[in-house]
UniProtKB/TrEMBL annotation:
<protein>
    <submittedName>
        <fullName>Oxygenase MpaB family protein</fullName>
        <ecNumber>1.-.-.-</ecNumber>
    </submittedName>
</protein>
<keyword id="KW-0560">Oxidoreductase</keyword>
<dbReference type="GO" id="GO:0016491">
    <property type="term" value="F:oxidoreductase activity"/>
</dbReference>
<dbReference type="InterPro" id="IPR018713">
    <property type="entry name" value="MPAB/Lcp_cat_dom"/>
</dbReference>
<feature type="domain" description="ER-bound oxygenase mpaB/mpaB'/Rubber oxygenase catalytic">
    <location>
        <begin position="53"/>
        <end position="282"/>
    </location>
</feature>
<dbReference type="Pfam" id="PF09995">
    <property type="entry name" value="MPAB_Lcp_cat"/>
</dbReference>
Length: 297
């Protein structure tokens, strides 16, 4: 008996959709990387009960990652570095795969693999430098810029998990997640990263005076939201993700990027659509392994 007859069409659809999504975010060698990350014996930076594992394993990260990119783009120096050196337009999926692999290795992988991943990123950062129109210079290894990228990610991942995660964190776990992320931030070169929600809010507020909607930032927002590198059949689901990400941005971040603020729609239709698409992704990405025949458990 073929595996298709054993599993049934709905399970096969779930597996195939999940495999396609996984390949998009992890690359063609994703299964091999996953096997190493989760299967290699050895100590980890984070134990199985740590909040960072719950947050980073949830499909809400699809919304959180997009929100983080939009928020990060508001710092002119950080955005200039991304525009000039990241290749996000020419190879957007490659950039996504590198980022998702880094998060997976540092969250779930062995301590030695996590340290190697951090060392690789730090070597790349040393080469990324330049200047912007007003003459200011940037270095990707600048602890101040690293701090902005870090707090924008932490705030985005946590906020979107609390809105769209399968099991939101309680108050203590929210602070513990920020503390977990501080370990990764410190390893990357962030100086004194925030360790609870009060510190995270204060650090975000401290960057406000440096943020602005540059032409590069608005171009990145248009690319991410209106012209994404996804197949036509995926445009509608992606639109739900994009709308959910925009709705989780603070109001002060909308106008610089020329993004709308529609509180009634965001609290109803956008949130409903966001829960629907995140739930569908979660369902697909947790598909059971395919059996080879009726006698395999």
């Amino acid at each position: 008996m073929t595996s298709e007859k054993v599993l049934g069409p709905l399970t096969l659809l779930r597996q195939r959709w999940g495999a396609a999504l996984f390949e998009r975010v992890a690359g063609s060698d994703g299964p091999a990387k996953r096997a190493r990350i989760h299967g290699l014996p050895g100590p980890r930076w984070f134990s199985e009960d740590r909040p960072i594992r719950r947050v980073h394993a949830d499909a809400a990260m699809f919304v959180g990652g997009l929100r983080a990119l939009l928020l990060q783009s508001l710092h002119p120096l950080a955005m200039a570095a991304v525009a000039a050196h990241s290749g996000y337009r020419g190879d957007p999926w490659g950039r996504l795969q590198r980022t998702s692999t880094f998060l997976a290795v540092t969250t779930f992988g062995t301590a030695s693999d996590a340290q190697d991943a951090v060392a690789t990123v730090r070597r790349v950062h040393q080469k990324v430098r330049g200047s912007i129109r007003d003459g200011r210079t940037y270095r990707a290894s600048d602890p101040h810029l690293l701090g902005w990228v870090h707090v924008a990610e932490v705030d985005s991942f946590l906020r979107c998990h609390q809105q769209y995660g399968a099991v939101p964190l309680d108050d203590d776990a929210c602070d513990a997640y920020i503390d977990d992320m501080a370990r990764i931030g410190t390893a990357l070169g962030v100086v004194d990263p925030p360790r609870d929600r009060a510190e995270l809010g204060a650090r975000l507020a401290a960057y406000r005076s440096e943020l602005q909607g540059t032409p590069e930032a608005r171009a990145a927002a248009r690319f991410l939201l209106l012209d994404p590198p996804v197949p036509v059949v995926a445009r509608v689901p992606y639109a739900f993700l994009a709308s959910a990400a925009v709705a989780e941005l603070p109001v002060w971040a909308r106008w610089p990027l020329r993004l709308p603020y529609l509180p009634v729609a965001e609290a109803t239709a956008v949130r409903l659509g966001g829960h629907g698409i995140v739930g569908a992704i979660r369902w697909a990405m947790t598909a059971p392994a395919q059996a080879d025949g009726p006698d395999r458990s």
